[in-house]
């Protein structure tokens, strides 16, 4: 570490010590110390992980990154375990989306509830046929207003029948070859092929896409680092963490609390005086 960097670290540590906050405190987000907090990647998106109630202080992260504790307290392994779980969840999401858009389209998927629509069309057609002689009879009997109202009702039923027939012959757009959706391999979102470049750019720059992209790059970097580091480095990190934990326990633990220590010291002095008196009497 250069003198400039050491001075910067000392100044930073002085500010942190003045605030009474250390990066080892339990209310400090350790993921933020290592790289980033996953909860802050997807706020206000469909995959929002919820808020993180811990402290996210860039000064604490700088202090941790510059300290000898880096890579030795287990923060990195916990962080990468967490983002690897998120990465695995994303991979399952991508596989489900691919299965959805590439599945063999059976009749029920191509046109949901087709049989029900066909049955409704048959009933509606029969009602229309029955209304024709009724309208003729009303007109011949001179009940013109009733005949006209019945005719308008039959016209509405005919329009409903035509619309129902169109739905019967329609195909789910998801299973039209020319409109089949694609799947983003970064975030698992469904994409419209041949979509406008502006919409694709907006997707790629979106918070959900960028968040998963950052996780993907962090996982890849971790795997490269893990492959390049040997088992000896892992043992060294474990030993360093054990020494750090021992120092922390030693600072926070004493054989007696303050009242107990005074009681123990008073008892020792009392025993010493009694022993001295017995010795003088024996002499």
Describe the overall structure.
- The chain has helices spanning 3-19, 30-34, 58-65, 75-102, 107-110, 114-140, 144-169, 197-204, 207-228, 231-252, 258-282; strands spanning 182-183, 190-191.
- The chain is elongated.
- It is built from eleven helices and two strands, in the order αααααααββαααα.
- α1 crosses α3.
- It has a two-stranded antiparallel sheet.
- The protein is mainly α and 283 residues long.
- The two termini are 68 Å apart.
Strand residue percentage = under 5%
Q: Percentage of helical residues? A: 55-70%
Give the spatial strand order of the biggest sheet. 1-2
**Helix and strand element order:** HHHHHHHEEHHHH
Number of helices: 11
| Rounded average pLDDT | 76
Ends apart, CA distance between termini: 68 Å
Q: Largest sheet, described in full? A: 2 strands, antiparallel
**What would you call the structural class?**
mainly alpha
How many strands in all?
2
Unreliable parts: 250-270
Radius of gyration: 38 Å
Principal-axes shape call: elongated
């Amino acid at each position: 570490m250069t003198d400039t960097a050491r001075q910067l670290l000392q100044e930073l540590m002085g500010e942190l010590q003045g605030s009474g906050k250390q990066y080892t405190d339990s209310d400090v987000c350790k993921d933020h110390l290592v790289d980033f907090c996953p909860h802050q990647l997807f706020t206000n998106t469909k995959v929002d992980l919820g808020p993180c109630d811990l402290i996210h202080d860039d000064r604490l992260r700088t202090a941790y990154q510059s300290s000898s504790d880096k890579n030795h307290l287990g923060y990195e392994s916990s962080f990468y375990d967490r983002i690897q779980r998120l990465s695995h969840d994303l991979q399952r999401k991508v596989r489900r989306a691919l299965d959805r858009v590439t599945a063999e389209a059976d009749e029920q998927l191509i046109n949901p509830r087709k049989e029900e629509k066909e049955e409704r069309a048959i009933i509606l057609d029969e009602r229309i046929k029955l209304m024709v002689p009724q309208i003729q009879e009303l007109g011949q009997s001179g009940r013109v207003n009733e005949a006209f109202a019945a005719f308008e009702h039959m016209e509405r039923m005919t329009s409903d029948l035509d619309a129902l027939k169109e739905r019967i012959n329609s195909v789910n757009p998801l299973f039209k070859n020319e409109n089949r959706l694609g799947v983003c391999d970064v975030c698992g979102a469904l994409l419209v092929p041949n979509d406008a470049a502006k919409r694709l750019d907006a997707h790629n720059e979106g918070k959900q896409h960028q968040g998963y992209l950052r996780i993907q790059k962090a996982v890849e970097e971790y795997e490269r680092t893990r492959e390049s580091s040997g088992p000896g480095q892992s043992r060294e990190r474990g030993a360093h963490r054990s020494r750090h934990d021992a120092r922390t326990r030693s600072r926070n633990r004493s054989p007696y609390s303050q009242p107990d220590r005074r009681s123990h010291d008073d008892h020792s002095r009392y025993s010493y005086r009694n022993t001295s008196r017995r010795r003088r009497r024996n002499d």
